[in-house]
Amino acid sequence: MSETKYPAALRAANVPPQARHTNYPEPFASRVAGRTKRRLGDAFGLTNFGVNLTRLAPGAISAMRHSHAKQDELVYILEGEPVLITNAGETLLKPGDCAGFKCGTGDAHHLVNRGTSDVVYLEIGDRTPGDAVTYPDDDIALTVIDGRMRFAHRDGRPY
């Protein structure tokens, strides 16, 4: 049993933003500028799934459009009106809307803030070991090995 003490409750806005705004290597890191994440799940010591309170400034994107081999994801929109882009096309989301992405389907997705105000949403994902992420629009791939992210070009060369 862990000796670390975690709070039973806290104000989400008091969780510090993620120190490093992304794990993406360049040239992809600059494409997610304007995205801020507060790792709510980590603040409670959660290990089976993660919860992020994410803010997208106008013009920002949530991630490169991607799909997971082993990780399910869900987003719940709190503020603003992002555009969800999937293999099926574009869908405008509004506060109270949610979207889910089952692992292994190949349905690549991301959110884009084309509006003039911030978008705020919760993103929830499991932490299944051995995940792999594909990015159909970009020359990048991700594998997670022993909890470490490894980015590579599609041909396998590391970034």
Structural features, described:
The strands form three sheets. Strands 1-2-9-4-7 form a five-stranded antiparallel β-sheet. Strands 3-10-11-12 form a four-stranded antiparallel β-sheet, with no helix packed on it. Strands 6-5-8 form a three-stranded antiparallel β-sheet, with no helix packed on it. The chain has one helix and twelve strands, in the order E-H-E-E-E-E-E-E-E-E-E-E-E. It is globular and about 45 Å long. It has one helix at residues 40-43, and strands spanning 35-39, 49-56, 67-68, 73-79, 83-86, 89-92, 98-101, 110-112, 119-126, 132-134, 141-145, 148-152. The chain has a domain at 24-128: Sandwich (Jelly Rolls), CATH 2.60.120.10. The protein has 159 residues and is mainly beta. It is 3% helix and 36% strand. The relative contact order is 0.20.
What is the CATH architecture descriptor of one domain? Answer: Sandwich
Main sheet: strands, sense, barrel: 5 strands, antiparallel
Please give the share of residues in helix: under 10%
Strand element count: 12
Fraction in beta strands = 35-45%
User: Any idea what the radius of gyration is?
Assistant: 16 Å
Q: In CATH's first tier, which class of one domain applies?
A: Mainly Beta
CATH superfamily of one domain: Jelly Rolls
- The SS-based structural class is mainly beta
Question: What does the overall shape look like?
Answer: globular
- Element-by-element helix/strand order: EHEEEEEEEEEEE
